[in-house]
Write a structure and sequence with these properties.
about 20% helix, alpha+beta, 1 helix
Length: about 80
Amino acid sequence: MPKVKLTIVESHCRSGCHIKNESYIVEDICPPICHELWNNIYPNICVLLNGGNLDYGNIKEKKFEMTCPDNSRVVIRGEVLEEF
């Protein structure tokens, strides 16, 4: 099963939960990120964990970039870590 790396690209988090450049590896459980952000990105993570591709601009990729539902205060990138 692939793994998805989540990286905080930008952060102006009101609660201080996320700091720019922190990252998490997702295999099968939720990492320690806020629930609002997790609920927003989970459908894309599920697609990537199951081998799918996502729309990324005008192309299909094994990655995504999304924002926090709290006025886009946090930007997060998710990408598949290829297994060697």
